[in-house]
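lol ok so funny story. i was supposed to be doing the assay writeup but got distracted and ended up predicting the structure for this chain instead. priorities right. anyway since i did it might as well share w the group, maybe its usefull for someone
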Amino acid sequence: MSKVSPRRLGDLITLKRGYDLPEKDRVPGPYPVISSAGISGVHHDYKVEGPGVVTGRYGTLGEMYFVDGKYWPHNTALYVQNFKGNDPKYIYYLLSCLGRIRTSDKSAVPGVNRNELHEMAIPAIDDKKLQIAIRKVLEAIDQKIELNNRINAELEAMAKTLYDYWFVQFDFPDTNGKPYKTSGGKMVYNPTLKREIPEGWIDCLLGDHVTFKRGISYKSGDIQNAGVPFINLNSFSLSGEFKLEGTKYYNGKFKPESKLNPGELVIAITDVTRNADIIGKSFVIPDIFDETPLMSCDVASVSSRKFCNAYLEQLFNSESYHKYIKYYASGTLVLHLDLNGVKWFKTYLPPQKLLEEYSQHCASLFKQRNIVLKENVYLESLRDWLLPMLMNGQVTVGAQN
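and the output, tada:
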């Protein structure tokens, strides 16, 4: 077993509060601003030169962010000012092992006190060579997960490119297999949409062809470390893609008809981001879960007999649609989407055959995506099992010279 000894966290590192930077004072630049919730923007100046580790001071707690470069730690966060000779990435994994921590701060908003954190007793390894060997094991898993994420990003980009080419630029294959609009396909001005669309296409209200099913309400006690997979607001990335690490697990009561099947389409109907980044965003449920998932009340499923789910996913995540739909979201701290806004959206209905052809193209992309996501499920499980074992010395690795 690796030699592990109890240490004060303050003997290993020094934590420091981040720096205030109101959004109105930010000037776009190359340096990330790291808040308690991760990267919250960029700025032309920086306060710290990495490698660095940042964690929440109040608000979102327990998440660790490793930064390899110059950055601005926000005042909602704490950052490691001094690693005291320890390997920075080892410290990142060590702090990640602590989980969601809260000290005796009595404020209404969850927070941590860095002085109390410094007094925490934790198991630690002093040998830096051994620290490096341990973090390299975990790093290799994270690098494979990141590679898989890039593969999925490419698959998503392929679906978007084809959507833009066929349904935005109208260069879908004509009867001769040539790009329709570029090859001189007839375009007709539509007075309802106030734009030209291909001849034969018709305008419609989206609400004429879609129906919704809302998710289930839940209490904090219903969410545990195991149970029925639960699609929730945190399952959405800012650009709309499915975010595996956002999956929660539900242990409350539910009706069988509340479950979702792989391939169904869901949209976010609440949002807590400042700029309504997630509201109305959408993804197709991946086929990666051992048990059919549920969805929370922050999410609604969408079904249509005319539009295929792959098409609607791209429409809902498009920039033009998001500019439209976010004005149907209201609320002070939490935004709630009026689904009438979705129903009232004016659009065009492409030919059914073209929609089916697009759906078939995307089906192969979704199949590849599911394979990669399933591998990530396994890798994340392996990493999360290894992390405490390595940090506690229950699993041994050889130090490198």
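The first strand starts at residue 5 and ends at 8. The longest helix spans residues 128-168.
back to the writeup now i swear
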